[in-house]
Write a structure and sequence with these properties.
alpha/beta; about 50% helix; disordered N terminus; Rossmann fold; five-stranded parallel β-sheet; 2 domains; Arc Repressor Mutant, subunit A
Length: about 220
């Protein structure tokens, strides 16, 4: 069964992939008290998440964008690339203006922010399990406008031009990480990270490393990344 097919009514096994223990505990309590739902596993990184997917065969994985040592976007892509029959709902603190479309393109079936009410989270889970794609009204309007070409291509600029890995490096720069620290965290060579830095500077029209760090730091403060 692939991710686009509706699953039969019944018990829904939910995998939580979230790097904040307190929020993960809250989410687990929320899911376990819902009729027909239960948490089948918890992880805070991609490796453990993939292991649990194979071991527990969840119906849906609720995935945060920021995971320990990596990005939830990479997990979503891995799930899609391997053809695993698990739906993915992204539940994140990050701005949906920047991340929702990326998550949906990567293979997620929905995107919801952490400031939504608990009832909306449950509604999103049930919607995804019924074969729907969940997005806020605001995000749905944006995607429809882009699809219908009402939005000029010149408006799609700035941060949206960064590739997923470039955005990940940009975030880490904004958190004050050095090239060596970023390389170690992402499992990349330092020269590769330097290449990403150069691409980011070019795309954001930044002239120096100082401007890059300043812009990245401000973005992290504004978006809580």
């Amino acid at each position: 069964m692939n991710n686009t097919e509706k699953k039969p009514a019944g018990h829904c096994k939910v995998l939580l992939v979230e790097d904040h223990p307190m929020f993960r505990e809250h989410l687990g309590l929320l899911i376990n008290r819902e009729l027909g739902m239960s948490v089948c596993g918890e992880a805070d990184n991609i490796r453990d998440a993939m292991r649990l997917i194979h071991e527990t065969n969840p119906d849906i994985a609720i995935v945060d964008i920021t995971l320990r040592g990596s990005s939830g976007l990479e997990l979503i892509k891995d799930i899609k690339a391997m053809g695993l029959s698990v739906n993915v709902l992204v539940l994140s603190m990050h701005d949906e203006e920047l991340y929702a479309e990326r998550a949906l393109r990567a293979g997620a079936k929905g995107y919801i922010t952490k400031n939504e009410a608990s009832a909306e989270v449950v509604r999103a889970v049930r919607g995804v399990m019924n074969g729907e794609v969940y997005a806020s009204r605001k995000m749905t309007t944006k995607l429809l406008e882009r699809f219908s070409k009402k939005r000029a291509a010149t408006e799609i600029a700035g941060m949206e031009t960064l590739a997923d890995r470039e955005l990940e490096v940009f975030q880490m720069l904004g958190r004050g990480k050095s090239t060596r620290e970023i390389a170690h965290s992402l499992g990349l060579g330092e020269s590769t990270v330097e290449t990403y830095r150069a691409r980011i500077k070019e795309k954001l029209n930044l002239r120096s490393a100082a401007e890059l760090y300043l812009r990245a730091g401000q973005w992290v403060r504004d978006h809580g990344s």
